Amino acid sequence: MRIIRDYQFIKPQDRGASVAIGNFDGVHVGHQSVIELARSTAPDASLGVLTFEPHPREYFAPDAPPFRLMRDNARAHRLEKLGVEKLYELPFNAALAGLTPEEFARSVICDGLGLSHVVVGSDFCFGKGRSGTADDLVRFGQQMGFGVTIAPLMERSENVVSSTAIRTALTEGRPHDAATMLGHWHRIEGEVIGGEQRGRELGFPTANMSIEGMHPPKFGVYAVLVDVLDGPHQGSYHGAASVGTRPMFNGEVPNIETFLFDFSGDLYGSTLSVGLVEYLRTEMTFDGLDGLIAQMDADCEKARTVLAAL
Predict the structure, then answer these.
(1) Which residue range or ranges hold the Riboflavin kinase domain (predicted)?
(2) Do 220 and 280 touch, CB atoms closer than 8 A?
(3) What domains can you pick out in the chain, each with its CATH number?
(4) Is the overall model pTM greater than 0.70, yes or no?
């Protein structure tokens, strides 16, 4: 998959694509249906996605609580798995935010990227002040020579699939419900960073990853599926992970610490993708380390049972 980050200097081979437009946070089943429409509506064109980085919500409200389900690299990995050939990941800045809907259609979609067809959700808004609608885009497409398809909102179990609904499920410790809307396990992806080695001292060495800037799932212990994406230990593993602030050790900054079952090796610097499968328990404190170790043994045993049943 090619990643293009500038709409003003485009190689000829990167023009003419059929693209789905949106932020695609989580790449949930609604997003996937929009991408599939872009594929099926113009099967002879390259399949693309047009999105923005940072997320416009981050740009306009930088001090708001973290809300993203995915970082940009995790989103790119998921889109590539769906067969997307070209990812137009445009920098969202003052210049782009200031374009009127018509200017966006002409300068970005038509003249800049030279797209042949675009697909958007029925609730799509674009341009300065989010003043442009999906119907406006249809009208611009007719004037400027690119096709437009409006995809209906997708529903699952009588609820509209949305990133907001997925965040709510994760906040409430319902990863199965989140996965139903996502079409895949919710995954936290990132580089393994140095920790305080407490897990190793307790007999449970963990891979520590930051969740800074991400919407935090309910704090506690989860059964997880782990993909090591690079390095000498690349592969898939089962495990248990703790998400939170480690109250037993007076932690302050939330992170995720993952223990891989039946694994021995150094993961520092490797990139992990940790899929949350089942919420096992809330964060707890103990009178001593013996109680903590006994609970960790029980957590791992329960996680093994859960994952064996998949």
Answers:
(1) 181-308
(2) yes
(3) 2-155 (3.40.50.620), 185-308 (2.40.30.30)
(4) yes
